Amino acid sequence: MAIDLNADLGETVDGVPTADDEAMFAVISSASIACGGHAGDAASMHEAVARAARFGVAVGAHPSYPDRANFGRVPVAIDPPALEAAIAGQLRALHRAGAGLRYVKPHGALYHAVTHDADQADAVARAIAEISAATGRPLPVLGLGGEMARAVASVGLPFVREAFLDRAYLPDGGLVPRSERGALLDDPERVAARAVRLALEGEVEAVDGTVVATDAASLCLHGDSPAAVAMARAVRKELEAAGVEVRAPW
Length: 250
Hints:
By secondary structure, the protein is an alpha/beta fold. It has a domain at 2-162 and 217-223: Glycoside hydrolase/deacetylase (TIM Barrel). Helices cover 38% and strands 17% of the residues. It has 8 helices and 10 strands. The protein has helices spanning 21-25, 42-55, 80-96, 108-113, 118-135, 147-154, 188-201, 228-241; strands at residues 2-9, 30-34, 58-62, 103-104, 141-143, 159-164, 203-205, 211-213, 218-222, 245-246. Strands 1, 2, 3, 4, 5, 6, 9 and 10 form an 8-stranded parallel beta sheet that branches. The protein has a two-stranded antiparallel sheet with strand order 7-8. The longest helix is centred in the middle third of the chain and has 18 residues, at 118-135. The radius of gyration is 17 Å and the shape is globular. The two termini are 15 Å apart.
């Protein structure tokens, strides 16, 4: 049995890393690399691609709303053609950095918007279809589902559901907003136990005790969490102890 462990990395701001990328790359199997929308620049993309090659980690693109001021975590009112152009530009930038792209995962507010906004989901899907054609590979798209899954299927690309190890869940399967207390988890032992339950049983417990079923094939940890490295190491250790191989599926 195997499952992917991904983290959002390469998220430099004004040249300053927001995570311990070196330590995280040593533990994960896939890295979602910031490509200039919310964070990152040409130098950080080249560095992340080189680091991924050194550790044997699959590279994914992590495009976002073009909103560096808010780290891509605030919804942006943007018309679909402009969004498509912004996402396409970010994907091309990471491709030019030498990345052998394996998947795409929208970031932050965009990630959540495309689960319910059909127009934005279609715009993002078209941009991903464009870079897929350029790479000669149908790039899988990570997400929670909803409109993004539909839009991805409409352009002939695979959709992969993911689950979050360090975020609290709502009973409907959504994530507790970051602005609310308890939205972020940082206990390595608790997060590792959650990872094993997700991998073996396909379920996660919501904040009210509800059990949410999911067919997630990839588990995410946010690299910019203060406890990210400790959590990642605990997760990998417990998954392997449970007989689950940590491996990228792409």
